[in-house]
Every structure is written in structure tokens, then in C-alpha cells.
Amino acid sequence: MAPAPAPQGQPAHLRRTALICAGVAMGMTGLAFASVPLYDMFCKATGFGGTPMVGTAGAGVILDRTMAVRFDANVAPGLGWAFTPESPEITLRVGQTQTVFYKITNRSSRTSTGIATFNIAPEKGAAYFVKIQCFCFTEHTLQPGESLEAPVVFYIDPEIAGNRDLDGVNSMTLSYTYFQSKAGQPVAEGKGDAAKSNL
């Protein structure tokens, strides 16, 4: 019986296919790690998903058009905090910079750390809600009975007047939810996974 022939090297096209597949797999892995920050940047740049825009200064132009802004404050179960806006609703002129304070109190008998997430409704108006200063996504640690007043500084971008689809929008709601915080991330009670914000 004749010996089996020695194995030949792999054809060039099989090696090339294997390299392409490995490259695609590595690219997909990298994209998976980058998807959360990229999505966050996209939301902040476009207002998608109820994410307000971030600004560094006032609008510079104030219109006669007015807008009602409602303030919603929620606390996830298990945190033991009270969380309320100084006013449930205000009316301001489009382009006018406004500051509203929220009061946060630890009503529990233990020191705890929380972090707030937020969104804007209606979503289509979020691209015109510009926050200059906000306490959201910043951890706060409160002792039992300790209170904190935290400001949010914002304006409605005058460019809203140029969007005919938003002519009928005369109110927005800024909604915050405080969660327990772990390693700088909001955590839902009884779950190891970070709570998902509406971003």
C-alpha cells in the first residue's frame, strides 16, 4: 500500500477568506464596545430619544414665543430619597435662560449614593432643549437626613421657531429619576445590571 501524500499548503484564497473573517469579527467586537459612547454622542448631538442638547452659554436671542416646561422628579425603589422640583411648571420665553432648583433629601437611616438620569418629552422637542448646567449623571452621596439643592440651567433654542413640525409644541417635560449608584452607574433595585436611562 502506497503512503498517503503529504498535505499541501492551504490555497491562497482560503487563507485570504480566513483573514477577512477574522478582521470582520475583530471589527464587530470593537464596534460593540464603542456603540454605547457613540450612541450617547449621537443622542446629544441630535436630541434623539429625548436627550437634551448641551450648551455652554445662553442663546443670545429671546423670542416672544413662550413655552411651558414641566418638571418631573422620580426616585427608584430602594433609594429612600425624597426628590422634588422647586416648582412643578414654569413658563418662559424661547431663548430665555432659566434656573430651576431640585431638593434632594436622604430619608433613610443609612448613607447612600444616588445618580439621576433624565429625558425630555416630547422627544421631537428634545433637540431644542439646551442644558447649560445639570446635576444629572453626577453621583451624590447623602448622610441620613441630609439635603441638597441642585440646579438645572437651561433654555429652549430659538431655532425651534424654524421647525414647522414643532409649531404646535407649546410645552415640554423634563423628567429625572434618581437611582442607587454603583461605580458611577445607575442601578435598579435587586439587579446587578445598570438601569437604562431614556437616552
Automatic annotation (TrEMBL):
Membrane topology according to the record: Single-pass type II membrane protein
Cytoplasmic side: 1-15
Similarity comment text for this entry: Belongs to the COX11/CtaG family.
Periplasmic side: 36-199
GO molecular function, one term: copper ion binding
Protein name per Swiss-Prot or TrEMBL: Cytochrome c oxidase assembly protein CtaG
Domain of life of the source: Bacteria
Signal peptide location: none
Reported function: Exerts its effect at some terminal stage of cytochrome c oxidase synthesis, probably by being involved in the insertion of the copper B into subunit I.
Main location: membrane
Source organism (scientific name): Bosea psychrotolerans
Any one Gene Ontology BP term: respiratory chain complex IV assembly
